[in-house]
């Protein structure tokens, strides 16, 4: 379909408006990041520069920077520095991915060798630390002390979420409440901070800050649930990674929790045995998936993600809009809905 | 010797004044750190809390916090928050030690199992990240945006120094200039930042900031040279680690560089062959040490460390002293001299 044809076909992308509206923002983030790296890595070791570029320019969707930009715009501020501030969230995100891939011993990310697989553990630890420091520097410099507080607390919370997740490995008695606490800490708080700091950057009032932070928290949790669903149902060609990693690692995610909650005692026991047995067996994974299907674990989890997105959208709808912020808030709503459809 | 005896014995500790003057400052840092952790780790996973405490309360000398405190006092400010700000430098220091021990696959530190050896790689990476984030938060919050800039740049520089060091592994053509560039980035800049931020916290004028930063840079480099000497000459019972690690890892440090620079072509070739050969052999290490001795590599490196300390002390002597800052600046001079004598 060419760009000039009418877009009333049923195959038309319902998010075409979102894509075209955000493309230029993402391009500005990329340019800001490249300029910042050129400056910050000037006179640095060539390998450090290579690793940082390798990790950052890897087909990432730049969702976090986009959230900062749209939240700032929604509260009335849009200037050049905003795109570099937004880039800082991508730095932190990539820093955590690099360190996560060490922890998970992951070889592939987005269909490409991970930093640890390509450059080894020393480069991976150090490049993650460099990006972490650079992200803090940019947030403190461009968005001020209150924003740095929010950012550092979200980072500390993320680490705590990872520890709590470790504690629940292969724990068949893990509760939904514990799952939601973990994803809020691992993902929700950091996404909320990208939104809150966008609002703070724009000088938003407390009600706007709170609304955008709440929006971020809800979509962050939805995002994590979709991630957990893709770990079962994703297409490897699209996600760039195998399915079943979470099960192999003993992570008890929402589809499984819902299935455990609704299964007959016999099937619950079967699932528990699978979780506590040899999780590297392909047949164990397949048996588990069949049981999750049987008790609608996937559709229940998808429903929960949709509910969270609906709450996020409602939060935006009821907040006070800056006179120039209408389109940005509209795009935030579309973005929330779009996150549900992602396949990678 | 009891405390009441006169201290004119030749065995008397020439640093007794330093020790007694700093003991209460160090105790206040410990108390500030404990209170901060209690607050920051409230409601956190017990394992995260355990790992952070294990890493932080490990017999560390608290040199970095002490520098911040003395530099701030020297510029006229001494209040409760100073001790927590000072603690932030210990957080960052410990974060880097935890990550370094992953990179070096180290089992022991100060005679105790390292975090990675005791808790595994996941806990080690994450606890390092937590302490890193917390240190940035505290510096930004308590010393402001300019201090955070200095701090983040020093952290980025440290990472770059590690990359440059990697590049020089087993490189027999490494120059003294490259060595000094690496230790300035790895150690000097961060120690300089602890001093500069102490000065900034006290509202020091640019001349004072510059003097204290220069002091920190010099003693940081001297500190690293002493570290490199201890890696050859340290007493395992005191340092808590084996000698010869640097050689085994292919790190070309100053005693070796000086020996290479002064050796006959034949002995230089022998040392180069040892560096590029099987460095795990005990006999290779012993042959190398004998050659370094032969060409005064150790005494030359120790001389350089003394020169750096003298420069640091001169810098302090010529700076403008705050009316209440005399004793602190005197202690900074003693501390510089003390660093040369350390055995661990």
Automatic annotation (TrEMBL), chains A, B:
<dbReference type="GO" id="GO:0004659">
    <property type="term" value="F:prenyltransferase activity"/>
</dbReference>
<dbReference type="InterPro" id="IPR008949">
    <property type="entry name" value="Isoprenoid_synthase_dom_sf"/>
</dbReference>
<dbReference type="InterPro" id="IPR033749">
    <property type="entry name" value="Polyprenyl_synt_CS"/>
</dbReference>
<keyword id="KW-0808">Transferase</keyword>
<dbReference type="GO" id="GO:0008299">
    <property type="term" value="P:isoprenoid biosynthetic process"/>
</dbReference>
<dbReference type="Pfam" id="PF00348">
    <property type="entry name" value="polyprenyl_synt"/>
</dbReference>
<dbReference type="GO" id="GO:0046872">
    <property type="term" value="F:metal ion binding"/>
</dbReference>
<protein>
    <submittedName>
        <fullName>Polyprenyl synthetase family protein</fullName>
    </submittedName>
</protein>
<keyword id="KW-0479">Metal-binding</keyword>
<dbReference type="InterPro" id="IPR000092">
    <property type="entry name" value="Polyprenyl_synt"/>
</dbReference>
<comment type="similarity">
    <text>Belongs to the FPP/GGPP synthase family.</text>
</comment>
<keyword id="KW-0460">Magnesium</keyword>
């Amino acid at each position: 379909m060419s760009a000039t044809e009418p877009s009333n076909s049923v195959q038309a992308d319902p998010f075409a408006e979102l894509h075209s509206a955000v493309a230029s923002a993402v391009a500005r983030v990329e340019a800001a990041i490249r300029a910042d790296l050129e400056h910050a890595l000037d006179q640095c070791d060539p390998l450090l520069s290579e690793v940082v570029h390798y990790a950052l320019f890897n087909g990432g969707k730049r969702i976090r920077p986009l959230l900062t930009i749209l939240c700032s715009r929604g509260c009335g501020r849009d200037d050049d520095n905003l795109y570099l501030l937004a880039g800082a969230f991508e730095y932190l995100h990539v820093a955590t991915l690099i360190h996560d891939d060490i922890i998970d011993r992951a070889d592939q990310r987005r269909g490409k060798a991970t930093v640890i697989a390509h450059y080894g553990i020393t480069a991976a630890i150090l490049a993650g630390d460099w990006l972490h420091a650079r992200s803090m520097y940019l947030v403190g410099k461009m968005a001020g002390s209150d924003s740095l507080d929010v950012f550092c607390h979200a980072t500390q919370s993320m680490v705590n979420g990872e520890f709590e997740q470790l504690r629940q490995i292969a724990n068949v008695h893990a509760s939904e409440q514990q799952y939601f606490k973990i994803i809020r800490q691992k993902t929700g708080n950091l996404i909320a901070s990208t939104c809150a700091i966008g609002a703070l950057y724009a000088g938003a009032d407390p009600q706007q800050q709170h609304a955008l932070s709440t929006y971020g928290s809800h979509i962050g949790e939805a995002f994590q649930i979709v991630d957990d669903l893709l770990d079962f149902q994703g297409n490897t060609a699209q996600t760039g990674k195998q399915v079943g990693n979470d099960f192999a690692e003993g992570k008890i995610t929402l589809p499984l929790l819902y299935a455990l909650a609704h299964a007959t005692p016999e099937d619950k026991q079967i699932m528990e045995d699978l979780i506590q047995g040899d999780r590297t067996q392909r047949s164990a994974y397949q048996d588990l998936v069949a049981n999750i299907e049987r008790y609608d674990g996937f559709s229940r989890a998808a429903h929960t993600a949709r509910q969270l997105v609906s709450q996020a959208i409602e939060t935006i709808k009821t907040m006070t809009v800056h006179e120039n912020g209408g389109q940005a808030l509209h795009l935030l709503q579309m973005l929330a809905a779009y996150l549900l459809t992602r396949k990678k």
